[in-house]
Specification:
The complex is a heterotrimer of chains A (591), B (239) and C (430). Chain A is an alpha/beta fold. Helix content of chain A is 22%, strand content 18%. The two termini of chain C are 29 Å apart. The chains are: A alpha/beta (591), B mainly alpha (239), C mainly alpha (430). Chains A and B meet through α2, α3, β5, β11 and α11 of A and β2, α4, α5 and α6 of B. β11 of chain A pairs antiparallel with β2 of chain B, so a sheet runs across the interface.
């Protein structure tokens, strides 16, 4: 029997990026907020200090900062004809856990989507005609525009102290930045990171080929910075133990380094860790959330009543909770009915290995940061003419090698024996002179048969069905990816590589191969309840006192990392809650 | 309470009084305790925690051939790769701790990944026994460790391409497992028992656990002359 | 909650300051000289502010109890543990039944009811400077807080220290009673700072070294004291070990926010920041800073001169220390020791690493430290604990290094110093 707790104004499920942003915004509005987080508290000095943060085995290979699949996992199959099986250890994506969520161990790559990304279906059909898109591609417009989100992108970037070079300020293209980006209102808060030899060599080669390279916008800061909340971050030391690791220098933007020092001191905020929300409770109309039920580490059940419920648990778990709580209609790929679970997407990653003459090139790959890199954006989104190419979508291309951690950086030329003296020799000869970091980060559009649903067989430790992923690549993405890979390889060749080995993305989608943790969709936003789960403010069409944050809202994925857009949407939604919802609780959009 | 508690700006109380409960309330400030942290447990040399002496000899011999001694580095055996594997198998990795190990276990596609309940510790035990038997059968009752270097290489190649069969165990899978674990032991921080004296890092030119490269990021295409250090291995600290 | 005196009407503040200038003791309103007016909210609010300055809560409030000033908090002294009494107005277990004179005597003379002696853990040796009017204002405020029934047995020390009569002899030797006498040759601001520092602020309780009987070494006022696992540093204007390199503004900013461009408060001072100084007025903090900057400390110490009691450190140790520093410390504190303002304290030229007693850097290196977070400076960065990765030799080397690099100068630290510190810290739970 769940023990009923005193009512709070707001209950937030998950204390990662969006949970922290929303908690801070709503406590500022005077509300009494509690955040329920299933993982532990984490912080720099106690969990990833400079004396042992740099442990590749522990944090990269053995996933210590991530969710343990034994706590909960997901199941996977490529298509409906297969039986989905559990992901018993992470591969294709790394799921977060704990206070700070993925903010602790992300790369820090902080992008804005393109203006056309938000009106994708309208834009593409206008330019290329409806028949250009595959029949089973289910991309749609978001219901918000880039201009709607611009002030909120700005707010997130200034929260983090993002290090970058602006490319377009109020319509004026800036030298050295991304000439394709949507217009921003002001420069980045700190200058771009310094770049390594390999990154700069790529930029040089790209320039020679007529492209306009620019530094990757980074949530690892080029210099110390104090954000508008008064929290100070440190300076990146290019340690090369960034993504999948915590930062020991307070130099990587995370909830801990940007928001929590302020949030935790507020008397109207409380966080509870080690507590997993099992259900969002509804009243008997099914149209109003009354709060959540959660279980703490000892197995005791609690009910936390609240007037406003914010679901901030990461895309996969957001959708799972919606389904388990009976909110909305589960998506049925056969009929196409139901909004919860559809338009699930990932990211299309590929690249090339570049082997260089060891006597002429020394890249010092271990001097790097999570979001270091020199990038070109000529082939992202619809920045280029797809007409003759027969695919849609695109991505950014660049030399963004983030580390030289030895177990991960053992690329040797093909046909090198896997062991023995020749293997050692090849390892030694290529370690310092290889570009070994993918190179293409491309879009993943949505399809009728890529979706989330509850698994019929496999359960979590509470006996609840796991989230089931049905996902595969479609020809469009494979074709796009190959084309982009060739473009990247061309530049690597131009850099002076003695051997370039293309690493195309090959179907079927493989849940054992890491392809970023950018899982999106399943509870998408849109302009009416027949094509989305959420309205433009991330408010549930079905349950107006429930808002669902995160990339589950993306109708399809663009050719960029999602965190910048996730942060912007969180601020956009928070602004709507503060200025509209709190004054008049109820649906903010009538459609 | 018998000490004047530091109030600081933090307050963290346990939600329940039962032991081993992580659940906590965070209110009023950043949770912090003096001396808090979870440093890695350094492997202490000496003895085997998982392997029998026979198994250890086999794995050492294996590591010695996968990573032979030459002027680039000592052998995988002398670098402690078998010690590394032994300690890993005796620990959480060996029992797939943290993995989702609920059934039913069914065979899936390659894309669906690991679907076997057999842990690494179990795999090694079974496969090493099968390897021992297979070697004795083929090589006049000599175990793997007693073979000549050429014979050992022949066996390893046979495992790699599947031609050297092990009863009840997939040769290729076992080869991949030992290769991965040996190479990990070779390249990981020496605190875990392998990569003795940071031999692999010296070989490739990786400075190890250094954390501050601000003075080096602009030094393009230059060798960085920092001798490697490990998390708990700093020869440069000796007076 | 009042933010210091700044909330008071201007005229009132001017009167207070003016009063300090012109009259030796008249930091009060004529109307109040007679006693407590229960309806005078200004007196109550002033009293509230003064309890913040005096940091009564640090001893008299049990953290987490939800009962302000109800006592019951254990206080560590070199002689054993005391438990703070209940000073809420409860008539039975608190001070509700005390007369105003009894209250003022307790505060300023160290006498309890019925003539019993208080232990100088209650800093009456400092509070003796408090004017009667201020003491009455404190009483007026205390009369308004919730009365909490909490029976506290304050007699916790071992024999013979539990014999309070023994305090008579101690007072004879070490207690100089008397209200604050302003120095007419100094400014009003200086005098206000002196009044606060020497009186309610009782800074010397932690910062002045003590003799074996626990009395202040008055000739070494505020030159540092080892207590509870820390060394409260020298806060005179000593150029190397004191506040000589800090401006008045640096001191005031530190006291207000817990951080300034070179330093961060942690440990015991973090509590003082949180409960007391961060809530004081800017004027009062500037006054304290003004006063402290005028305390010369050890007159033999000149800037840039090596301390006479320390030999140049062993070069091999400095070399090892430099290596350890480069690998474990420079990521945050930077190669030149200057850290990042507001985030990582500077070690270069800062007093906290150059105290004659190395306990504080040893404590911080071994156990880590959380810096204080306040509204203007919320970041509260923490230093990790290094006890697990550095042995005694290595701690000694790196702490000797930071005490002597970049123009710093302080006595070297030995391995046995470290071993002792490790042992002592392991016995502490805070």
């Amino acid at each position: 029997m769940a023990r009923r707790l005193p009512r709070k104004d707001v209950v937030i499920i998950g204390l990662g990026w969006t949970g922290s942003i929303l908690a801070n915004e709503l406590t500022d509005a005077g509300l009494d907020v509690v955040a329920i987080e299933r993982g532990p508290w984490r912080d720099t000095a106690t969990d990833f200090p400079i004396s042992y943060a740099q442990d590749e085995l522990r944090y990269h290979l053995q996933h210590e900062l991530f969710l343990r699949p034994s706590q909960t996992s997901v199941t996977f199959r490529n298509n409906g004809s297969q039986t989905a099986l559990p992901v018993r250890t992470w591969g294709a994506f790394m799921l977060g856990n704990g206070v700070g969520g993925a903010g602790i161990h992300w790369n820090g790559q902080t992008w804005r989507f393109l203006p056309t990304d938000f009106t994708l279906r309208s834009h593409l059909t206008q330019r290329y005609g409806t028949n250009f898109l595959p029949a089973d591609m289910t991309i749609q417009d978001w219901g918000v525009t880039f201009d709607d989100l611009e002030p909120h992108y700005d707010k997130f970037e200034y929260l983090c102290g993002t290090s970058g070079q602006a490319g377009n300020i109020n319509g004026t293209i800036q030298d050295g930045g991304n000439p394709f980006e949507g217009p921003r209102s002001r420069p980045y808060p700190t200058p771009p990171l310094k770049q390594g030899y390999g990154h700069m060599l790529f930029a040089q080669a790209a320039k020679e080929l007529g492209y306009k390279p620019f530094p990757l916008p980074a949530g690892n800061l080029s210099q110390s910075y104090t954000n508008p909340l008064g929290v100070t971050l440190g300076q990146c030391t290019y340690c090369g133990f960034c993504e999948w690791f915590g930062c020991a220098n307070y130099a990587k933007a995370s909830p801990q380094t940007t928001i929590l020092p302020v949030l935790l001191r507020k008397p109207n905020f409380e966080g509870r860790t080690g507590c997993e929300v099992t259900r969002i409770n509804l009243d008997n109309t099914g149209k109003r959330a009354t709060g959540v039920t959660y279980v703490d580490d000892s197995g005791e059940e609690f009910e936390q009543p609240a007037d406003l419920v914010l679901l901030c648990a990461f895309s996969l778990f957001n959708v799972q909770l919606l389904l388990l709580s009976g909110i909305g209609t589960p998506y049925d790929p056969q009929s196409g009915q139901g909004q919860i679970g559809r338009n699930f997407t990932h990211q299309t990653m590929s690249g090339a290995l570049g082997f260089f003459d060891k006597d002429k090139y020394n890249f010092n790959p271990f001097v790097a940061s999570g979001a270091i890199g020199m990038i070109i954006d000529e082939f992202n989104g619809d920045n280029f003419d797809h007409g003759p190419l027969g695919f849609v979508g695109g991505g950014y291309i660049g030399e963004m090698q983030t580390n030289g951690r030895p177990i991960e950086t053992t690329a040797v030329p093909p046909d090198t024996p896997a062991w023995g003296p020749k293997w050692k020799q090849a390892l030694r000869d290529n370690y310092l002179s290889t570009i070994n970091a993918g190179g293409v980060h491309a879009s993943f559009y949505s399809y009728r048969d890529n979706y989330l649903s509850l698994d019929p067989t496999y359960k979590d430790r509470f006996g609840r069905p796991l989230m089931r992923i049905t996902l595969d690549f479609h020809d469009n993405e494979i074709k796009m990816s190959a084309w982009l890979t060739n473009k990247y390889a061309e530049i690597v060749q131009r850099m002076g590589a003695k051997q370039v080995v293309n690493q195309y993305r090959k179907p079927p989608y493989d849940v054992t191969e890491y392809q970023t943790s950018h899982l999106n969709g399943g509870a998408i936003m849109g302009d009416n309840p027949r094509n989305s789960a959420l309205n433009r403010y991330l408010q549930s069409w079905d349950v107006p006192n429930l808002f669902v944050m995160g990339a589950s809202a993306f109708p399809q994925n663009a050719g960029y990392n999602p965190t910048g857009t996730v942060g912007a949407l969180a601020y956009w939604s928070a602004a709507a809650i503060r200025s509209q919802y709190l004054k008049n609780p109820g649906p903010l959009v009538h459609a | 309470m018998n000490r004047r508690q530091l109030l600081g700006s933090s307050a963290v109380w346990l939600l329940l009084s039962s032991s081993a409960v992580r659940a906590a309330i965070i209110k009023g400030g950043i949770p912090w305790k003096p001396g808090a942290g979870d440093p890695p447990n350094a492997v202490t040399p000496g003895g085997w925690k998982y392997f029998t002496p026979q198994e250890a000899a086999t794995v050492e011999a294996f590591a010695e051939r996968l990573i032979p001694a030459d002027d680039l580095s000592p052998s995988g055996k002398d670098c402690g790769c078998a010690i590394f594997i032994d300690r890993q198998l005796a620990g959480p990795y060996g029992r797939f701790e943290g993995y989702y190990m609920s059934g039913p276990f069914q065979k899936g596609t390659k894309q669906q990944g690991l679907q076997s309940p057999v842990t690494p510790a179990q795999q090694y035990r079974k496969a090493l026994a099968a390897l021992d038997k297979a070697c004795r059968d083929k090589f006049a009752d000599r175990s793997f460790a007693d073979l000549s270097d050429d014979q050992k290489d022949e066996v390893i190649k046979g495992l790699e391409d599947g031609s050297f069969e092990l009863g009840g165990t997939d040769s290729k899978d076992f080869f991949k497992l030992v290769l991965t674990d040996t190479q990990n032991g070779f390249l990981a921080d020496p605190i875990y028992g392998g990569n003795k004296d940071m031999a692999s890092w010296k070989m490739i030119g990786f400075p190890g656990a250094h954390y501050d490269y601000r003075d080096w990021i602009d030094k393009h295409n230059q060798r960085i002359p920092l001798p490697p250090v490990g998390i708990n291995n700093h020869p440069n600290w000796s007076q | 909650m009042p933010e210091g005196l700044s909330y008071l009407p201007r005229l009132t503040r001017a009167l207070l300051v003016g009063a300090a200038l012109s009259l030796p003791v008249a930091v009060s309103f004529p109307a109040l000289a007679a006693g407590i007016d229960k309806q005078d909210f200004r007196q109550i609010e002033r009293g509230h502010y003064l309890t913040i300055v005096g940091d009564c809560a640090a001893c008299h409030t049990l953290p987490g109890s939800g009962h302000d000033l109800a006592g019951g908090r254990a206080i560590e002294t070199p002689f054993g543990e005391l438990v703070s009494p209940n000073i809420t107005p409860d008539p039975v277990t608190g001070v509700g039944a005390w007369t105003d004179d009894e209250f003022v005597d307790a505060l300023t003379k160290g006498t309890g009811r019925d003539g019993t002696h208080l232990y100088p853990a209650m800093p009456y040796t400092y509070y003796t400077k408090v004017t009667r009017d201020d003491a009455l204002a404190i009483r007026a405020y205390l009369n308004t807080i919730p009365a909490v029934h909490n029976e506290v047995n304050s007699d916790q020390l071992p024999f013979p220290l539990d014999v309070r009569m023994s305090m008579t002899a101690w007072d004879e030797m070490f207690f100089k009673p008397g209200t604050f006498e302003p120095d007419k040759s100094k400014s009003a601001e200086w005098n206000r700072g002196a009044y606060l520092t020497e009186g309610l602020g009782h800074c010397g309780l932690c910062h002045t070294p003590k003799n074996i009987l626990g009395g202040d070494k008055t000739h070494k006022q505020m030159q540092g004291y080892n207590l509870q696992g820390w060394f409260a540093p020298n806060i005179t204007n000593d150029p190397r070990r004191g506040l000589g390199s800090w401006s008045i503004e640096d001191i005031a900013t530190y006291l207000k926010t817990g951080h300034n461009k070179t330093s961060a408060a942690t440990g015991l001072m973090a509590e003082t920041l949180n409960l007391s100084t961060s809530k004081m007025s800017d004027d009062d903090l500037t006054a304290i800073a003004t006063y402290l900057k005028d305390q010369p400390g050890d007159p033999s110490n000149q800037p840039n001169q090596t301390q006479t009691d320390s030999a140049a450190p062993d070069q091999a140790i400095m070399k090892a220390g430099a290596q350890i520093y480069a690998d474990e410390c420079s990521g945050c504190h930077i190669g030149n020791g200057k850290g990042i303002p507001g985030l990582f304290p500077s070690l270069n030229g800062t007093p906290v690493v150059q105290q004659s007693d190395p306990t504080t850097p040893l404590h911080v290196v071994l156990r880590g430290a959380l810096s204080v977070g306040t509204k203007p400076a919320p970041t509260a960065a923490a230093m990790p604990a290094f006890a697990w990765v550095l042995n005694d030799d290595q701690v000694a080397a790196v702490v000797t290094y930071i005490r002597n690099a970049w123009g710093n100068s302080a006595p070297a630290v030995s391995s046995s110093d470290v071993g002792k510190a490790r042992q002592q810290l392991s016995e502490r739970s805070d």
